[in-house]
Design brief:
With 298 residues, the protein is of the alpha/beta class. Helices cover 44% and strands 25% of the residues. It folds into three domains: 5-86, Winged helix-like DNA-binding domain superfamily/Winged helix DNA-binding domain (Arc Repressor Mutant, subunit A, Orthogonal Bundle); 90-162 and 267-295, D-Maltodextrin-Binding Protein, domain 2 (3-Layer(aba) Sandwich); 164-264, Periplasmic binding protein-like II (D-Maltodextrin-Binding Protein, domain 2), CATH 3.40.190. The protein is built from eleven helices and 14 strands. The strands form four sheets. It has a five-stranded mixed beta sheet, with helices on one face. A five-stranded mixed beta sheet has the order 11-8-12-7-13. 32% of the residues are buried.
């Protein structure tokens, strides 16, 4: 008797995550159901596919050989369903996405909601976190990231460009004065985003060349909203993306400074594992996000 799709999916997710618990989270079922499905698959095949210990789940030699065949089988079924679905011009199924908090809230979520309104069968699981998540272990179809890409094991698609500026509150300017050149920052209080290289945060275009500037930090944090709150409260100068500060600038809570000295632009990317074919529904999300970021001035 042939194995069921549920059994193959259980094996695939256990193999990719190395954990029954993580596989259960990815599939949205209980750990015991994953275990039963994998055990049923092993009985059908008459072979042990994984080695179970109290600390880890690892593939056996037979399991390693079976993994790629199982993945190809599921990919072929997904592709066949997508071909049929394309005839109905409908996007269906769940897409799991991880994205930075501010970018996700202000851009990824609105773009997703627009696409979901057009395709009632589309579902999304959106994880918003400024810490980079492990795409494979976390069970994500794709990640949206800003800035340098360090993981060569992932495939990337550039979606757009983020422009940054230096801002502070009017109260801060009254207290400390306005910096006129990047060199003036050495005498000012600055706020640092710890998820970004310090030399990149305070690098300006000066006389046609990029120049790194020395700064003194009053506050360091990995959260963009926290930096925004601190800047509005008058705690210092901060370099943030335009899309984060533009509302407070428009309301007069923040003021742009050093506008004659550009900060480096950074890319917005969609990333997904190179070892797996991107499902059609996830490809549709990537294409929609690319269109959104091309229209949005961020």
């Amino acid at each position: 008797m042939r194995p069921s799709l549920e059994e193959l999916e259980a094996f695939l997710h256990v193999a990719e995550t190395g954990s029954f618990t993580k596989a259960a989270d990815r599939l949205g079922i209980s750990k015991s159901v994953v275990s039963r499905r994998l055990s049923a698959l092993e009985r059908r095949l008459g072979a042990m596919l994984v080695s179970r210990t109290t600390h880890a789940v690892t593939l056996t030699e037979l399991g390693s050989g079976f993994l790629e065949r199982a993945r190809r089988t599921l990919d072929d079924i997904d592709e066949a369903m997508e071909v049929v679905g394309a005839g109905a011009v409908a996007i269906r199924g769940l897409v799991r996405i991880t994205a930075p908090t501010n970018l996700g809230t202000l851009h990824v979520l609105p773009a997703l909601m627009t696409l979901m309104a057009l395709h009632e069968g589309l579902e999304a699981d959106l994880d918003l976190n400024d810490r980079y998540a492990d795409i494979v272990a976390g069970g994500f179809d794709l990640a949206i990231r800003i800035g340098d890409l360090k993981d060569s094991a992932l495939v990337s698609r550039r979606l757009g460009t983020v422009r940054r500026c230096v801002v502070c509150s009017p109260q801060y300017l009254e207290r400390k004065g306005r910096p006129m050149t990047p060199d003036d920052l050495e005498h000012h209080e600055c706020l640092a985003y710890t998820n970004m290289n310090p030399s990149d945060q305070w690098r300006f275009m000066v006389d046609g060349n990029w120049k790194a500037t020395r700064t003194k930090y009053r506050l360091r944090t990995n959260d963009g909203n926290a930096l925004l709150t601190a800047a509005v409260a008058g705690r210092g100068l901060v370099g943030l993306p335009n899309f984060i500060v533009q509302h407070d600038v428009a309301e007069g809570k923040l003021v742009r400074v050093l506008e004659d000295f550009a900060l480096p632009e950074v890319g917005v990317f969609a990333l997904f594992p190179s070892s797996a074919r991107l499902p059609g529904r996830a490809r549709a999300v990537v294409e929609h996000l690319a269109e959104h970021f091309q229209r949005a001035f961020i």
